[in-house]
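Q: Please design a sequence for this.
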C-alpha cells in the first residue's frame, strides 16, 4: 500500500511519521520547496539561534513533547525563561496580564494556558523538523510541487509540476488551505473552494542582534505588544519618536528561551505587518526609540510571510467537517494542517497524525 503525503511542513511530516510507524505502508512525501518545515524556519547566525516562524508552543500542549520523545530528542526541550509581557502605550512600557497580551497577539489560547508559559527546543523549533526529516529521509522528495490530483478507480494519481506523477492508494494533503482547496475542487469535492478561502494574513518578522551594552533600557520580561487602538486613542497627534509606528510586537528572544544569543548579546525579534521600505531599518528605528538602543544592530535577518497565519471565518469548523464528510466517500484522502484544526504547531502535529490514522484505517477496510 502506498501513501503520498503532499507538503513537508510540520503537519505533513507528522503525518508521514505516523504512517511509517503504522507498518506495511510505503510513504512518499512531496514538497515543492527544497527544504522541510514549511513555516518553521530556524537559522544559526554566528552563535545566535534565529527563528523565522514559530519560536515555541504552549507548555501545556503534549504533542511536541510526545513527538520529541519518539524522535529521541525529548531532553532537548527547553522552558521559557523570562516571563511577562508589557504594553507599549506610545509613551511607556506597562506590564499587562499575559492572557491579554496573548489576545492582542492573536494567540488562540485561554488565560490559564498562556499562564503556564511556552516551551521550545535548545536549537530552536527547527529541531523536531530536522529530526523528522532525518528519520523520513528515504521518503522525502523535494522540488516536487503537486499540480493536480486525479481519481483513478480506487486509487489516486498525483501529478507533479513539470510532468512526472505518482500513483497512490491514499493521499494526505498537508498544504495551506488555499492550495489544498484547488486540488479538492478539481476532484469534485463540493466545499473544496470554501475551504480554500481561509485567509492567511501577511506578516514580517525581523531578528536583530545587539551587544547588551547597546540597550539603554533594562529589558523586563519576554517582550512587549503594541496596542494600536490604544496608541491611536491616546495620541490624536502621533508622539515624537514613535510615529508612524509599524511595530506590532517585540520578543526579547534571548530572554525568552536559553541559548538564543551568546553571552554579552541580545537578540530581539520584531513583528511587523507588510510595509513599504526595509523592514530591518524600520524595526531597528522603532525599537531604538522604545528601548533606547544606541548604534546599529550587529546584523539583522528578515522573514517575509506573505501568507502567514490563517484566520478562520465564521462557521469554519462546519465547513471543515462538511468537506471531511465528502472526502470519506472517496478513495482514502485526508486534509491536515494549519488551515483546518488550529494554527499552532501542536495543533498541526495532532492534525497530521489524525489524518495519517484516518488514511491507515480507510486503507485497511
Ligand atoms: C510568523 C509566524 C509565527 C508563528 N509563531 C507560532 C508560535 O510561536 N507557536 C505556534 O504554535 N505556532 C506559530 N505559528 C503557526 C505555525 O507555525 C504554523 O501554523 C504551522 O507551522 C503550519 O504548519 P503546516 O504544516 O500546516 O503548514 P506549512 O508550514 O505551511 O507547510 C505546508 C508545506 O506545503 C508545501 N507546499 C505548498 N504547496 C505545495 C504543493 N503544491 N506541492 C507540494 N508542496 C507544497 C509548502 O512549501 C510547505 O512546506 C506561527 C506562524 C507564523 C507565520
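A: Design:
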Amino acid at each position: 500500500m502506498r501513501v503520498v503525503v503532499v507538503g513537508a511542513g510540520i503537519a505533513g511530516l507528522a503525518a508521514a511519521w505516523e504512517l511509517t510507524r503504522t507498518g506495511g505502508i510505503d510513504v512518499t512525501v512531496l514538497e515543492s520547496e527544497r527544504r522541510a518545515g514549511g513555516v518553521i524556519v530556524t537559522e544559526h547566525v554566528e552563535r545566535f539561534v534565529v527563528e523565522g516562524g514559530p519560536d515555541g508552543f504552549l507548555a501545556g500542549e503534549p504533542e511536541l513533547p510526545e513527538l520529541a520523545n519518539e524522535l529521541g530528542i525529548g531532553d532537548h526541550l527547553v522552558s521559557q525563561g523570562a516571563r511577562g509581557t508589557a504594553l507599549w502605550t506610545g509613551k511607556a512600557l506597562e506590564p499587562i496580564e499575559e492572557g491579554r497580551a496573548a489576545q492582542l497577539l492573536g494567540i488562540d489560547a485561554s488565560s490559564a494556558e498562556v499562564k503556564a508559559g511556552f516551551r521550545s527546543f535548545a536549537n530552536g523549533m527547527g529541531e523536531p523538523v530536522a529530526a523528522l526529516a532525518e528519520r523520513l529521509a528515504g521518503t522525502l522528495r523535494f522540488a516536487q510541487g503537486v499540480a493536480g490530483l486525479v481519481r483513478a478507480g480506487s486509487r489516486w494519481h498525483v501529478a507533479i509540476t513539470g510532468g512526472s506523477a505518482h500513483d497512490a492508494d491514499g493521499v494526505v494533503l498537508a498544504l495551506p488551505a488555499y492550495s489544498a482547496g484547488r486540488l479538492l475542487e478539481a476532484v469534485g469535492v463540493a466545499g473544496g473552494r470554501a475551504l480554500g478561502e481561509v485567509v492567511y494574513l501577511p506578516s514580517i518578522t525581523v531578528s536583530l542582534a545587539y551587544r547588551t551594552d547597546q540597550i539603554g533600557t533594562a529589558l523586563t520580561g519576554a517582550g512587549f505588544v503594541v496596542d494600536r487602538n490604544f496608541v491611536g486613542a491616546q495620541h490624536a497627534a502621533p508622539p515624537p519618536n514613535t510615529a508612524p509606528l509599524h511595530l506590532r510586537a517585540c520578543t526579547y528572544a534571548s530572554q525568552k528561551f536559553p541559548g538564543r544569543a551568546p553571552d554579552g548579546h541580545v537578540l530581539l525579534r520584531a513583528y511587523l505587518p507588510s510595509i513599504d521600505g526595509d523592514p530591518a531599518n524600520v524595526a531597528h528605528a522603532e525599537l531604538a526609540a522604545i528601548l533606547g538602543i544606541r548604534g546599529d544592530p550587529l546584523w539583522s535577518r528578515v522573514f517575509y510571510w506573505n501568507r502567514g497565519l490563517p484566520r478562520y471565518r465564521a462557521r469554519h469548523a462546519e465547513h471543515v467537517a462538511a468537506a471531511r464528510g465528502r472526502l470519506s466517500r472517496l478513495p482514502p484522502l485526508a486534509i491536515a494542517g494549519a488551515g483546518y484544526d488550529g494554527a499552532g504547531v501542536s495543533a498541526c502535529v495532532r492534525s497530521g497524525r489524525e489524518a495519517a490514522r484516518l488514511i491507515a484505517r480507510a486503507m485497511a477496510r
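Q: Thanks. Anything notable?
A: The first strand starts at residue 2 and ends at 6. The pocket of flavin-adenine dinucleotide is lined by residues 6-12, 30-33, 38-40, 53-57, 145-146, 174-176, 179, 203, 205, 305, 308-309, 337-338, 343-345, 348 (CB under 6 Å).
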